[in-house]
Amino acid sequence: MEDNVEIQSQAYLMDHAPVIEGLCVMINSAFLCVPDLVEKILALNPGESLYDHGVQVASCVDASASDAKEVEINDEVGWKMLSRPWEIFEWAGEQIERDFVALTKHSNSQVLPEHCVCIGPLDQLFIEEGAEVLNATFNTLHGPVYIGKNATVMEGSRVRGPFMMGEGSVLKMNAKIYGATVLGPHCKVGGEVSNSVFQGYSNKGHDGYLGNSVIGYWCNLGADTNTSNLKNNYSSVKVYSYLEQDYVNSNRQFVGSLMGDHCKTGINTMLNTGTVLGVNVNIVGGDFPPKFLPSFSWVNRQKVYTYRLDKAVDVAKAVMARRQCSLSDLEFSILNHLFETKQP
Predict the structure, then answer these.
(1) Cα–Cα distances in Å, from 131 out to 113, 134, 168, 172?
(2) How far apart are CA 108 and CA 45, in angstroms?
(3) Last residue within a domain, chosen from 75, 98, 130
(4) Exposed/middle/buried for 167, CB within 10 Å: 0-12, 13-18, 19+?
(5) I need a surface site. Which of 153, 161, 167, 175 has the fewest CB within 10 A?
(6) CATH number, residue 201
(7) Residue 106, CB-side half-sphere exposure with 13 Å CA sphere
(8) Residues forming a β-bridge with 189
(9) What pLDDT digit, counting tens, does each position of 225-243 carry?
(10) Does 257 reside within a domain?
């Protein structure tokens, strides 16, 4: 039996979303999912809320009642809560290890083919049903490796854990993957990737380097797209913050690119250290583009133009159709809102 999920967020993200009535559990999704936190949430009684260091983690409430009393349960545990986008790849390794245990607990892995090699504990390599693994090398000495259902690892690929690839994803021939890296469902990835997270349906199908980065849905990185993740002077990386509407010091030495949904980079694109791209950013031409590009930017050799909404939507529909998907009314309304409110 599946539970209904309602999103409580900014208004434009909630349009067309299901509305839950009656008893429900509200969860702050910024917190990392860890077993002891899950147990605490499941143990909540109606009217109780769980806090950690003054921050609300979850509540068990009657969504129909406006005057429900709340009983606070305060735990000073220090559960990790995402507050900056670079924490997504920074904490990916520990979350991969937790998810690996949960996903493989009651399942059996396919047998590793004889033409493949596993360096390290074989029980830290899991190959789901329908996945195809061809003449690849896996290193599980530093973390688990999970190959999702119907995924493909082409010949010559080398993977160091921790690593997870979702259903239907593909590692192209001779891919070099360093952990901690996550490929969401239906991604196609080649070249060299280190400590990065792909959300889903995104491609980096050719040679080029990507490190310490987060890639949204429906992105495509053209051949030889390269991301800098370390400054030449080894100083900490400044990253544009939508919250502060200014650059902030990440206090991190390694930050690559943070890319919103539906972004595209042309061949030989160079992305500077700590580059932030909004939604539907299209980069063509040589040279480094600006480090911050708001949504619906069309960039050609340092010149930034507005990417027309109708053109961007047409491309999104074409890209999604190739994967037998379609742009929903909710997704269109989100794109329309982002276009109307894009930062200059």
Answers:
(1) 11, 10, 8, 14
(2) 36
(3) 75
(4) middle
(5) 167
(6) 2.160.10.10
(7) 0
(8) 171, 204
(9) 999 999 999 999 999 999 9
(10) yes
Q: Which domain holds residue 258?
A: 86-340
Query: What residue has token string 């973390």?
Result: 143
Q: Give the Å distances, CA to CA, from 255 to 31, 89, 143, 218, 320.
A: 21, 9, 22, 21, 29
Cα 34 from Cα 127, distance rounded (Å): 23
Retrieve residue 208's tokens.
């080029």
List C-alpha distances in Å: 36 to 39, 73, 148. Answer: 5, 15, 26
Give the distance between the most distant pair of CA atoms in the chain.
64
Residue with tokens 């980069």: 283
- Decide if pLDDT at 344 tops 60: no
Identify whether residues 178 and 249 lie together within a single domain.
Answer: yes
DSSP for residue 208:
-
For the stretch 144-198, pLDDT in tens is 999 999 999 999 999 999 999 999 999 999 999 999 999 999 999 999 999 999 9
| DSSP-derived 3-state class of residue 68 | coil
Question: Residue 99 falls within a domain, yes or no?
Answer: yes
215/109 same-domain check:
yes
Q: Which residues of 313-344 are buried (b: 16+ CB within 10 A; e: fewer)?
A: bebbeebbeeeeeebeeebeebbebbbeebee
Structural domain count, the chain: 2
Distance CA 13, CA 63 (A): 19
Q: What pLDDT, on the 0 to 100 scale, is given for residue 1? A: 36
Q: What are phi and psi of 125, to 5 degrees?
A: -115, 125
pTM: 0.93
